[in-house]
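Batch 3, record 17
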Amino acid sequence: MSEQLQAPSPLIPVPRAPAPEIPAAAARDELEITIDGKRVKVCEGATILDATKKLGIETPTLCFLETLTPVNVCRVCVVELEGSRTLVPACSRKVEAGMVIRTDSERVRLSRRVVLEFLASSVDVSTAPQLRAYMKRYKARAEKFGPRAATVAQPPKIDNELYVRDYSKCILCYKCVEACGVDAQNTFAIGVAGRGFHAHIATEFEIPLTNSACVYCGNCIGVCPTGALMGKIEYEMRAAGTWDESRQTRTETICPYCGVGCGVTVHAQNGQIVKVSSPIDHSVTQGNLCIKGRFGWQFMQDHE
Amino acid sequence: MFGAGGGTSSYREIEETDVILLWGSNARETHPIFFHHVLKGIRNGAKLYVIDPRRTSSAQWADTWLGLDVGSDICLANAMAREMIHSGLANEKFIRHATSGFDAYRACVEKYALERAELETGVPAEVIRQTAHAYAKAKRAQICWTLGITEHHNAVDNVLALVNLALLTGHVGRYGSGVNPLRGQNNVQGGGDMGAIPDRLPGFQNVENAELRAKFERAYGAKIDPKRGLHLSEMFEAMERDELTTLYVLGENPIDSEADRHRAVKLISGLEFLVVQDLFYTKTAELAHVILPGSAGWCETEGTVTSSERRVQRVRAAVPLPDDVRDDMEIIYELAKRFGRNWGKPDAQAIWNELRSLSPMHAGMSYKRLEELGGIQWPCYDESHPGELYLHSRLWREPLIGPRAPFSVVEFEPPVDELNEEYPIRLTTGRHLDSYNTGEQSRRFPSPLRRAATLDLSLEDGKRYKVCEGEQVRVSSRRGSVLAPVRFDPGLRPGLAFLAVHFHDEIATNDLTIDAVDPKSGTSEFKATAIRIEKCVENSSGPAPDRG
Amino acid sequence: MDLHLTEDKASPEEEAAVDAALEKLASSPGEATPLGATDGHARSNGLPARSKRHLLLPVLQAIQERLGWISPGALNYASLQLGVPPAEAHGVASFYELFSLTPRPPVVAHVCDDIACMTRGAGALCGDLERKLGPAGSPCVDGKALWQRSSCLGLCERAPAALITAAGETPRERIVAPAKADSISSVVAEAALGRLTAEIDRLDSKVSVPQAGQSQLRLLGRLGQADPASVDDYRRLGGYEALKKALDFGAERVIREVIDSKLLGRGGAAFPAGKKWQAVHAQRNLHRPHYVICNADESEPGTFKDRILMEGDPFAILEGMTIAAFAVGATKGYIYIRGEYPFAARQLEKAIHAARAQSFLGSSILGRGFSFDIAIRRGAGAYICGEETALFNSIEGYRGEPRNKPPFPTQSGLFHEPSVVNNVETLVNVLEIILNGGAAYSRIGTANSSGYRLFCLSGHVVRPGVYEVPFGPTIRDVIEVAGGVGGTGRLQAVLLGGAAGSFVSPKELDTPLTFEGTRAIGATLGSGVVLLFDDSVDLKQILLRIAAFFRSETCGQCVPCRVGTMRQEEALHRLAQRKPLGSNEQESALLKEMAQAMRDASICGLGQTASGAILSAMDRWSLFS
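Prediction for the assembled complex:
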């Protein structure tokens, strides 16, 4: 399998040439908008979320991820826009010159809080640290809808050796569907099925993953914000009470398989690999891996 | 290509190109994350042409699939070139400015009319014509290939035929256009960078150039053999001649991976001294006189690897070495000690810095910068240089910088292992998404996708040979014969069969394959074997497969 | 793309259903693109996903109507033919109420138990059916049929209503309205024996359009006066004069007339129609396709005016669309019609064929060089698809989930191209504008509500039906036109604008039924619903039904609407059962807080209005104290 393949080599090295030209991105106008009384300039095409980041304002997001097309369904990022009848989603609304935006008005706080209460009253958020932090910030109370409020509770789906789907933890943020679909993997093993409160993530006819189109890239796990999708090793360690992120190291390195050069983060506990992920800002992967990269490291366990 | 060996373009350019020729590559399964970039390109409007005998999962994404017959790539490429020239689609300005040898090339491809190409490749002339026009007329275009191009007896010629197309149209050296081999192993490019090529020193510097050699000799304080070394196939030939009697194998498993297994076993067993350094007790290690338990480069040691887009990236130790295992670097240092040279304490960064001082294309890549920039693409000449997104922009400079890029005259030669009445089926080989090469790494995780080793056939051949799915058949080539269960694959046409390379314990694919070797690169013709299949009279629990 | 299919294979009948649908679609102008061929050495297919997905909904419909359900094998076959991943096709199929993904008897009686039918005995009807055919949702008549409760079927003038569908090689439908348990079960029995005839549920204008034949009618003038399938009849009554005039005017002038008319959309959102046209027209030089879409997904409970126009005067809609297409530079149009309107769809389909035959549609209409054609898309039971961006997704073969706006449809609509979406009634108004001029039209009605308007009178009113008035009359006036309050004769409440509208009390009857008049009392005209409740009605039950409607019709995409509609219904149930969390006041406060979040943070109008009617009733009457 050696594949060192070279054209006949010149005896004399090729001289250094000036750096290659890279087409410049189309010049974009700067627009000025006002957020919470502060003026800020951002490029045309930027979102309100981009602008709030520039001002250091922390906007909660759940369904948003830099590498995915905004679906703006969770609505925790809503802000008040002067002249708009309703609140608008910061993650996807593009800025327009002269916008006046408030990110912390009573109206905004109420909607964000109620949205979080809606989620936490219907979904098990025990492994969703980000969402729990938002709840604390907005003083959201999941129990206010009473003990008989409908939930999405259901047994976890364990149908393969690599990862577990526990949809009682699913907030339907669509990220896994996007990662499995057009935004990354283009395998389309899962989609949103059903409607309304019972809308859910599913394979066709709820068939087990092992019959589905799934290629076990685990890119859905990589984007899941609530732990509804989890590697089986992590799932089992959590069940056994041995999963301890405070004792884990994270090391950036490169996948040992093909020559694409995917950046991986190796999560190790007690000197053993327990999980592999990829940094979302890695230029090659954008956080995505294939089955070998994400799960193929178990040979290290045999290497003793 | 013309100088340093590496893909000319970056992955991000694939997303912004207009036409992609994916040639002899099932990147969807073998380079899945590269294929993500292809998919982005498709979603951005690029047209994808997949040239592959099999209608693979990659081909199913193509606007057009060209299902050529195995080994007819040069014929197809030359016919495309002729069509471009005849239709006035050659980039004459670029050819005049930056290339050499065009007249000879034109004379050569003149023999490859579309009709002849249809006959030799099986691809309809009109489809070849359309593909040629689409590639030539595109504002930006990419050619990417993998082992479907290189695992042939004329591997280098195959590559040159593709490079010719890029030169003919000027689809190289500009943003979004280029020629790119996709590397099969995480550091095969890095191995080349570091001089693990018979005629190169680190940084693709020619060992036969005295001046360059002197630079290294000064730095190393040692003499360097002025003659090129041997590539893999030449090593086996040297073993045959008893000129090579000692072999030090690091992280390779030639017993399972060489094209002619019988010969590999015979020659390696006959060595006077074999050292194997590996993570696993491989088939090759079983024959070793000394086994050195090595480390897993990607997560137990410090260093760098280079990807298919020439991106040098850091690997780091994430977990401690197991007991009784040593860092590969340390093993080599210890060996040096035994040879009487004390190199001191092994230090990956110090070695890297020495390399940087000797290889101009790596000079600017300090560990600090590699970390900060998320890897750097060579060449990177100094610590203010950003690395190069794509190569060969010099070919477009006025006046031209450096030597002209040569056209190469390459002629079509059919695969060595000819089809005839006795061996009527073309067997080709390849890889599965969840498995990797000989399977030493990949078979150790519980992949739900893993299938048993099978001989894949078209449904039509299944009918013709009266075999059904799952049935054990005898597969024979001119060199050997194995038993394999049948699986039907709608991506195969009659007369074409497929075996994956990962399952040597179940089906020793290389009992069948031929070791016809490309003299220029030393790669073997894994992709084209003539076989026949026969129904087994004995049931599946019968005699074990004949392994010679 | 590399599709992965399970082992499930389609039966020959399922394959035939898909093949026939595709063949029909392929022969329909502008619909399908051909498949590439393969000979084992080459295949040119383009990206199938790019070109075929928009055929998914009609293909699923064909399977459903042939087999009575969509099996895994049938879904696989459809997926393969269209290049749509099965998980996505399944996601789409499971979105629609009229599709079943589990085996289901071929005959289904959809019995409306929504608010208009509730006032006319739907509750008792369902009770009777339960005794006669067994519980809703379980097979009856030897397992060949079942009945189920349904949201509003748009047959409110003939309440209580039922729609019976029978799957088979020739699918059949039948409307039973007003319905009794006996009449429903005898049709079901007939259908189960395969004896349902192809008879069309003919519009009886005497029943549905009590004003029919009156000379002052502008929108309803042809109803009952012409054969709705005859172009000649249509032309005899002035049809296609407006189109000729428009072609003479040129696009700019047509748009100016519509702007001058101050016509506001009649679907519910009341956006100026001329502005939409102008915005799409302005992009004519971008060399992108433009689309005209007629929104005929009339699903607002209590609304049936568009159905009556489609059944009784289909050419008027085609003519209005053709004028719109000419004005904005579109060559292709879609009519998206709700799945519960099989007869209206059939009338339109016939009308399109007839119009094509006489060069009123197709290439070079009337020999004037302008080409335009129309395809029909039938919905499959999803209220949300009346939301224009959900409608785009539905046509494109995706789940009918609304998109965030902006971008607005005029910039990025169907297939992400500039699109005009007009309601059926809006398009019929256009004819009047072109014939008599925009300025003249703008003088009809009031200053801020120009022109003519249809109202859907139902519930406890003496003569339910659709009524046309020039804007101006009050709620009381309109009720008088319809013969006054029915039932006990003592009016308790009026629901304006449907489930997404608001309740008004008898004290507010002197409010003009105009955009500005209703706005002044915090109500809305919406889709023209005027639904009367006498004093025998338990409004709490009506509110629970409205809450259940939104809970079952929310697409589930955004959190405030998906969970909010559930929590709202739960709270109302607690109040109705006198088991509030804390006090009634605390529950009311909770409802209001949820309502604010739903109104403020939902993606589309459904969530934004899902609590409007409920809160309007709670504000006006002390229902839960």
